[in-house]
Design a protein that fits this description.
heterodimer, A: 270 residues, alpha/beta, Rossmann fold, 2 domains, 6-stranded mixed β-sheet, 10 helices, 10 strands, globular, B: alpha+beta, 5-stranded mixed β-sheet, 12 helices, 9 strands, elongated
């Protein structure tokens, strides 16, 4: 029997440019993510992180290779792969409750069951008192919690997050990181999270993927204990754990070098 | 001249009002709002709000100036009025033999529209006889002074002095309540003092406009009641706008969602957009005449492109991440259309609708000015041909009020129906 999980087999993505050239956004990326794993993806800008996520979500078809989820090839977006965007991408013409119940409503889930699920999820993300508020009345952090709840309401197998906490202030961000870990542990979902923050990648990534640009590819992968430690714990304590500072330094300098190389190359181009 | 004085007075009231209100509010009101706590307000757009007392003074000033310069009963102070009543001047004529004689001209200046009798006068002594004449205020009149004299122009008599001052053909002498000029042919012309007030055929007093408004409400004008005139104009705007929206919004959606539609209609829309609807009036009249059909077609065309472009922008403006999110949540394309694309485009469509209503209202008035049997524009056009300035001004005020009312209604509807506008 095939193993449950997300299998990415030799995925390549090539964008042809109007001037006859092309950009190799991804080259032969292969990766297996088992059900229930949480993986963070780091990399300098232009390394194809977002393209990688869009291909898994099914918004783009890769020019080579394939993505297989639980034995089925991915051919387009589907509710088994939920997505959380940087700016929430909430529907501001609906209130909080309608946003969260959007998926079940579109899939004709019975009303009573939808209501129950929505109430439960809003309780988990701590927005029970804001059910009937309009989206534009909420703060950025609250909006991201609505986005998380909306994604979970459909009970997806995989949750894809594209810098979901990037636009939040430092304090809110830390709280949200705790929430992501809690949701991961409570629901047992597979989570792939793209981030620009090395700290966030270390704290949330059971597995941490560093990508390199031109062509976009996997540079190095780490297995880290901090996500497991962080569940239900104070994240600031986790940062003091053994190995955290070393890993951070190592990854920071790795990305720093890559950025330097890009800058150098751009200067040569110019 | 009057214009310059008006402008000067207006600027003075503007400045005085500013100083007075500033002083009064400094003494009376302790400002505790947020803006008062800012030390930097210059260049801060959020700190600039309309000063309501300035708005009130501005409107009152407009009416006061209007009243003061039209001799209105509503204002206590008036600009100098034109001379009304009887005045005299003397002229001295010289006949062919060099004999001079002086006679008096009695001038009666009256308000145009009021009854007047030519004053009776005693012809007096000497060969030059006294004259009497009536002149409407703000007008002037040639005086045939030699008509009753013993020596007339044909006999070689000519006028040499007015009020004791010498005058030559083309010359001018100031008299008590006006000016006396002499034509190149030697005839006298009297111009009574005009004062600084406006003649009613240029600008009637506010109460005259109000009175005309009351008259027309009860009696109508040009075979139609006032409400019918305005109602027809409004009906045309609403009908044209509804047809424009019914065609334009689906067309805009199609252009926002399909390459083929976008390609097919882009040249047409982009070409028609900069053509002012007013430029279509002649063609629409040729095709559809001056009746309702023609007007509605014109307004349909005025609203159509605006609504098309608004709907297209609404669709194109949807954040792709929202569509992606909806797909990831299991929505079908038709569900996304209904629950994401349509609601997302509503703010743009409302903005377009507000613009379209404004343009339609302007266009309908213009179209009625050109040719119509009934309508607000027709009413003021016909009135202007008969110099009924009070109806023209009343019509302009009503057109403005209705246009403003339409915009306020649209804004209220927008606030109710798309409360998320600008807060996405």
């Amino acid at each position: 029997m095939e193993k449950k999980g997300l299998f990415i087999n030799d995925v390549s993505m090539r964008f042809d440019l109007p001037n006859g050239g092309f950009v190799q956004a991804l080259q032969d990326v292969s990766l297996n993510i088992l059900a229930g794993e949480i993986m963070t993806v780091l990399g300098p800008s232009g390394c194809g992180k977002t393209t990688f996520l869009n291909i898994i979500a099914g918004f783009m078809a890769p020019t080579g290779g394939e993505v297989v989820l639980n034995g089925n090839s991915v051919t387009g977006p589907s509710q088994e792969r939920g997505m959380v965007f940087q700016q929430g991408a909430l529907f501001e013409w609906m209130n909080v409750r309608k946003n969260v119940s959007f998926g079940p409503r579109m899939n004709n889930v019975p009303k009573a069951e939808t209501e129950e699920r929505v109430d439960h999820l809003l309780d988990i993300v701590g927005l029970s008192d804001f059910k009937d508020k309009a989206i534009y009345e909420l703060s950025g952090g609250m909006q991201q919690r609505v986005a998380l709840a909306r994604c979970l309401a459909n009970d997806p197998d995989v949750i894809l997050m594209d810098e979901p906490l990037g636009a939040l202030d430092a304090l809110t961000r830390e709280k949200m990181q705790g929430l992501v870990l809690k949701l991961w542990k409570d629901t047992g979902k597979t989570i792939i999270l793209i981030t620009h923050s090395v700290e966030e990648a270390l704290l949330l990534g059971e597995r941490l993927l560093v990508m390199a640009p031109r062509p976009g590819r996997i540079h190095k992968e780490y297995r880290l204990p901090f996500a497991e430690m962080g569940v239900g714990a104070d994240l600031r304590e986790v940062k003091k754990a053994d190995g955290y500072a070393d890993s951070r330094e190592e990854i920071l300098s790795m990305i720093w070098d890559m950025e330097e190389e890009i800058m150098g190359r751009t200067e040569e181009d110019a | 001249m009057t214009g310059l004085i008006l402008l000067l007075i207006y600027v003075v009231i503007f400045a005085l009002g500013f100083i007075v209100v500033k002083q009064v509010s400094k003494r009376l009101i302790k400002r505790v709002d947020y803006t008062a706590l800012k030390t930097v307000t210059f260049g801060d757009e959020s700190a600039v709000t309309a000063d309501r007392s300035a708005s009130v003074i501005s409107i009152v000033t407009l009416f006061l100036l209007w009243g003061a310069f039209t001799g209105s009963i509503l204002t206590p102070i008036h600009a100098p009025p034109p001379f009304i009543g009887d005045t005299t001047f003397e002229y001295t004529a010289e006949n062919a033999e060099g004999s001079r004689d002086t006679a008096t001209v009695l001038v009666r200046v009256f308000r145009v529209g009021e009854d007047v009798e030519t004053p009776e006068i005693d012809p007096g002594d000497g060969w030059a006889k006294n004259d009497a004449i009536e002149i409407g205020a703000w007008r002037s009149k040639l005086i045939k002074t030699d008509g009753n004299d013993e020596f007339d122009k044909a006999a070689g008599a000519r006028i040499v002095e007015v009020d004791g001052q010498p005058i030559l053909p083309g010359g001018e002498v100031k008299a008590a309540d006006g000016r006396v000029t002499m034509t190149p042919k030697g005839t006298l012309n009297f111009i009574p003092a005009k004062g600084l007030q406006m003649e009613p055929i240029w600008l009637p007093a506010p109460e005259a406009v109000w009175g005309r408004f009351i008259d027309i409400i009860s009696d109508g004008y040009q075979n139609y009641g006032l409400l019918e005139h305005l109602g027809y104009s409004l009906f045309r705007v609403i009908a044209g706008f509804i047809f424009g929206a019914l065609v334009g919004i689906p067309l805009g959606y199609a252009m926002g969602l399909s390459n083929w539609f976008r390609g097919w209609f882009d040249p047409i829309v982009e070409f028609m957009r900069p053509v002012p609807p007013l430029a279509l009036i002649p063609l629409v009249i040729i095709w559809a005449g001056i009746g309702e059909t023609g007007k509605i077609i014109l307004l349909f065309l005025a609203a159509l492109w605006i609504m098309t472009i608004a709907a297209r922008a609404g669709v194109s403006g949807v954040q792709i991440s929202k569509v992606h999110a909806a797909f990831s949540l299991g929505a079908s394309p038709s569900q996304i259309m209904r629950h994401v694309i349509v609601p997302n485009s509503l703010p743009e469509i409302f903005t377009g609708a507000r613009v379209a209503m404004g343009v339609c209202w302007g266009t309908v008035v213009a179209a009625e000015l050109v040719a119509a049997e009934v309508g607000a524009g027709m009413m003021i056009m016909v009135a202007s041909k008969f110099q009924l300035t009070d109806i023209v001004i009343m019509g302009i005020i009503l057109i403005g009020v209705i246009g403003y009312g339409i915009d306020i209604l649209m804004r209220m509807a927008e606030k109710r129906l798309v409360p998320w506008k600008g807060r996405g």
